[in-house]
Every structure is written in structure tokens, then in C-alpha cells.
Write a structure and sequence with these properties.
mainly beta, 7-stranded mixed sheet, 13% helix, SH3 type barrels, 41% strand
Length: 101
């Protein structure tokens, strides 16, 4: 299956047990290996917003309707700024927003 970035962004994310984590807000790419480094998932509303960094190995399935991830993703919310320092990565969401302007 293939999915374009515009459909991937804002895709709802659930754990295997059905707990909703949030929506895909960004995708960070490893440009050396031409692969996904992690998906950035935002949850919460206006008052509280957690960010989860989901590695591809933690993704169980992606359809046009939703992304399903391992239960372990819910255990440690991470800050979006924790990008790899030794691995050059680019944020696909940032690239897309610059192209739209």
C-alpha cells in the first residue's frame, strides 16, 4: 500500500488495544538511508499536548483510515525536539509547509 504525505499527516493513531494517541503531525526522515526515522504524533487539546515519537518498528499497520502502534508507545511521551544528533534527519512536515508557500 502507498499513502501520500498529505493523507499521512493528520491520520489518527491508535494503540493495538484501541486507545487513541492523537494524530500524525509530522514525519522525520533519515536522509542518509532514505527512510522514516520516526513519526511525530500529537495528542491532547488546547490545554495539554503530549508528543510521541513513534519509530517505524513500533508501527503495526497503516491504512488510509488510521495508524496502529504498539502499546509501548504510550508509556513515555517525548518532546519533539529530541531528534537524533548523529543522524541527519529532515522533517517532512516542515518541507511540505515551505513548498506550500
Amino acid at each position: 500500500m502507498q499513502i501520500n504525505i498529505k493523507k499521512l499527516l493528520l491520520l489518527p493513531v491508535y494503540t493495538e488495544s484501541g486507545t487513541r494517541l492523537g494524530k500524525v503531525g509530522d514525519v522525520v526522515l533519515d536522509i542518509d538511508n532514505h527512510s522514516v526515522w520516526h513519526y511525530v504524533v500529537h495528542s491532547g487539546g488546547l490545554m495539554s499536548k503530549d508528543t510521541y515519537l513513534v519509530r517505524p518498528i513500533q508501527v503495526k499497520s497503516i491504512t488510509s483510515e488510521k495508524m496502529v502502534v504498539e502499546e509501548s508507545v504510550t508509556k513515555e511521551p517525548a518532546k519533539e525536539k529530541s531528534l537524533p544528533t548523529t543522524n541527519p534527519a529532515k522533517s517532512l512536515g516542515n518541507i511540505m509547509s515551505r513548498e506550500d508557500n
